Amino acid sequence: MLTHSLTLTDRVAGRIAEQIAQGFYAVGAKLPAGRDLAREFGVSAAVIREATERLRAQGLVRSRQGSGCVVLARTTHQGFQVTFDTGMDRAQLAEVIELRMELEGGAAALAARRRTPDDLQALRGALAELGRHLDDPERGVEHDLAFHRAIAQATHNASYRQLLQYLNLQLRQAVHTARSNTQRQPGLAARVHQEHEAVLAAIEAGDADAARQAVHQHLRNAAARLQLAPAGA
């Protein structure tokens, strides 16, 4: 299932990149809406989201919620890039969790120091939506990522938000793998949700150290549940 989804993502992202390179979509033009692209390529909305995230990471498009994707360049940027191979193996997954531990732990600590009432409202809303979809892996992934984006927003540091967006495809796959695994064990989804609640509680309390540790504990537990080499040990 995982390999099949990523193969579809490769094909769709590659085809759209070809269309951009050939001028079918001009620089400055908007790509069709996600539902239209899904219909054109005969794939799900999730595949289109992953494909456009890959194009954005390559510097071909800019995406903003509610405004779609705008073409930025006809060829990929040759700067720093994090590779994402088809079929993330266990070593790669462990590396992503380890990266998340430091990146998201730092973001949570900053969020605890800088969060505003609006930030807290966004965090509570994202976590409430996640709680309502604990038994739905696909929608759960979206709300899980939304919660972590809300933490990045609460740092009031644009670089955190941009870096998390850049790594969206890797984070999405890691979260999808973890949540799919959670569904196989009765009662585990609720315990994982409590780990997210602990992160929010520390941010609400303004306790930077506790927020960082709550993220670290959550991701260490995620690695253990997937029987990966201990991340951050």
UniProtKB/TrEMBL annotation:
PROSITE patterns: HTH_GNTR. CDD domains: WHTH_GntR. The keyword Cell inner membrane does not apply. Keywords: DNA-binding, Transcription, Transcription regulation. Residues 6-74 form the HTH gntR-type domain. This is GntR family transcriptional regulator. It comes from Bordetella genomosp. 1.
